[in-house]
């Protein structure tokens, strides 16, 4: 019997930290560059994302990381941690990439890394995915999310043609965590988070908002419970499935690994199977 061949790892790009910029007390932008950026398979989606690889401190592993092979070769706690993040922007002419990280102190893996990243540090990522682009033929584009969705919503606002009506509704931890958004012609609504129930006030704001007329395209990404609560509201408002990008970036009370594992379970699904 012929042995099964192992699938080759996906294309990976390793870049170097150029600088970091704190956009708010809880959102840090890491600017990356390096020779490999010229070959990065960029894509036009406003919500383009990549899987980022974070080896443990002191690791001797070197990219590209073939996780399938490494699982047979090293202990579990020696494997790189993988996290998915939106790529805020790629500028091939300047040779830079921006990734914005939400930081909650020392909690998590990616946030603390970004908070302490120094020029010369490296970051390896997969080829990007994505799925949302603003549709200029829509009568109104509505962008909804929390701090985790700020990079994608900012990129979407930049991509919306002048003359297309747009509204952004965003929840942040406090006024100090609000960012300056591009495209001043968009209507922007900021909501302060209820720390005991992230996303709840955002859902209330959407439910009480006077919905625009005509064909509305919606991008709504953020805390899982909030996104599940928004789904029936969009059904009531007659949003066509093709005009709806609705997904969870995280779940309150869950670690990132638990959140990812639950995506395959009913509790983790935004749309019923």
Describe the model.
The longest helix is centred in the C-terminal third of the chain and has 13 residues, at 224-236. Residues 1-5 have low confidence and may be disordered. The strands form 2 sheets. Strands 4-3-7-1-2-6-5 form a 7-stranded antiparallel sheet. It has a 5-stranded parallel sheet with strand order 10-9-8-11-12, with helices on both faces. The protein has helices at residues 67-70, 110-116, 150-159, 200-208, 224-236, 256-262, and strands at residues 12-24, 27-33, 49-54, 81-86, 89-91, 96-102, 122-126, 140-145, 165-172, 187-192, 216-223, 244-250. Helix 4 (200-208) packs parallel to helix 5. The chain is an alpha/beta fold and 273 residues long. The chain is built from 6 helices and 12 strands. It has 2 domains: 12-126, Elongation Factor Tu (Ef-tu), domain 3; 140-268, 3-Layer(aba) Sandwich (Rossmann fold), CATH 3.40.50.80. The protein is globular, with a radius of gyration of 19 Å.
What is the helix fraction of residues, given as a range? 10-25%
Task: Tell me the fraction of residues in β-strands, as a range.
Answer: 25-35%
Question: What fold name goes in the CATH topology slot of the largest domain?
Answer: Rossmann fold
Name given to the CATH homologous superfamily of the largest domain: Nucleotide-binding domain of ferredoxin-NADP reductase (FNR) module
Order of helices and strands: EEEHEEEHEEHEEHEHEH
Report mean pLDDT, rounded to a whole number: 93
The overall number of domains is 2
Q: Low-confidence stretches at least 5 residues in length (pLDDT < 50)?
A: 1-5
Specify the number of helices.
6
CATH hierarchy class name of the largest domain: Alpha Beta
* Spatial separation of the terminal alpha carbons: 37 Å
What spatial form do the alpha-carbon principal axes imply? globular
Corresponding CATH architecture of the largest domain: 3-Layer(aba) Sandwich
SS elements, strand count: 12
Radius of gyration: 19 Å
